[in-house]
Amino acid sequence: MSLGDAKRLIIKVGSALLVDETTGKLRRAWLEALADDVAALRERGTEVIIVSSGAIAMGRRLLGLDHRTISLADKQAAAATGQISLSQVWQEALHRNGLIMAQVLVTLEDMESRQRYLNARGTLNALLGHGAIPLINENDTVATAEIRFGDNDRLAAKVAHMISADMLVLLSDIDGLYTADPRKNPDAELIPEVRELTPEIMSMAGAAPTMYSSGGMVTKLLAAEIAMKSGCRMMIARGTIYHPLKAQLDGGLHTLFQPSETPLAARRHWIATSLSARGAIVIDAGAVNALRAGKNLLAPGITTLQGSFKQGDAVRVLASDGVEVARGLSAYSADETRQLMGHNSHDIEPILGYSRGNAIIHSDDLVLAEG
Ligand code: GLU
């Protein structure tokens, strides 16, 4: 599996690549070359999402703030200032290639509240469906120290989980994971592939981050852990060169972290094992057959509800005899579902005044019970 086989690809670009450490200026020509690579991948039919850092670094320069003494409030002020410039340069670079960019700012809370998580996922899926390139960063302006990701490596991996991406590329200032720090140890060797995050692998992440990067190798391995659990392959590759993605398509050096499951299998595993069900939806025999045939759970097949649940909660889906048929994430709350059950799917909007789609539970969010 190489970059060229990815269907849904997330590319994470760190501040240290975007902003020149000595002058503090944006490396525009490099960014334009990367945007050309993104356009080439889109041409091949790959969906691309960019997670870009750089807001704080750019804003700091615009506001004339010293990175050694910067307070949290000033960091957030810098993010608010720099994010506009960051978005603008990305937009210009992608627009040159005829691509439409959309800015999405997220916080850790957005990923942890399943309601917001499902909404963010719906928006990202819609953007990708329209052929746009989402540009994602943390919403640093509102995220306080305790609730911040603080590093976009893990943020990118969480996004990969959220939208079931099959590949995440972390562009770095190094070719990949080495057995030791290659700047200090000439015997250090690049590890081309990792299938399991053993303690030995984890201990290889020792290098300290540079001035502009919050991560270093430690957060990259933490990101690998999230990505692998989500069934997403993760690649660490050198981003300091021009056209770093093209270099990978041409067979460049990297470390590839290989998960054991596909994103969909991993997602279903997560729904089945990590989430506790809040309530139950009872469905008729026709709906049972539809679910078993891989279809969405729709309102007409629902006969009764048990308990209460919110949008995004995990619920049990029962046949009329009480046997559990499936579990899934409900796109509608119990109150909403109660109003919709038994009705035709195209009545959702007239009944509620809005719609989050026809599926009460989408088949991607549904795990059939064994047997
Ligand atoms: N969100 C931060 C920014 O845009 C960067 C976080 C990181 O360096 O990974 O400046």
Automatic annotation (TrEMBL):
Binding site for substrate: 53, 140, 152
Annotated GO MF terms: ATP binding; glutamate 5-kinase activity; RNA binding
Reactions it catalyzes: L-glutamate + ATP = L-glutamyl 5-phosphate + ADP
InterPro entries linked: AceGlu_kinase-like_sf (IPR036393), Asp/Glu/Uridylate_kinase (IPR001048), G5K_ProB (IPR041739), Glu/AcGlu_kinase (IPR001057), Glu_5kinase (IPR011529), Glu_5kinase/COase_Synthase (IPR005715), Glutamate_5-kinase_CS (IPR019797), PUA (IPR002478)
Protein name: Glutamate 5-kinase
Gene field: proB
Keyword Amino-acid biosynthesis: yes
Key word Ribosomal protein present: no
GO BP, sorted A to Z: L-proline biosynthetic process
Annotated Pfam families: AA_kinase (PF00696), PUA (PF01472)
PROSITE patterns: GLUTAMATE_5_KINASE (PS00902), PUA (PS50890)
HAMAP family per the UniProt record, alphabetical: ProB (MF_00456)
E.C. number(s) listed in UniProt: 2.7.2.11
Pathway in which the depicted protein is active: Amino-acid biosynthesis; L-proline biosynthesis; L-glutamate 5-semialdehyde from L-glutamate: step 1/2
Every PUA domain range: 279-361
Organism of this sequence: Thalassospira mesophila
Root EC class: transferase
Function: Catalyzes the transfer of a phosphate group to glutamate to form L-glutamate 5-phosphate.
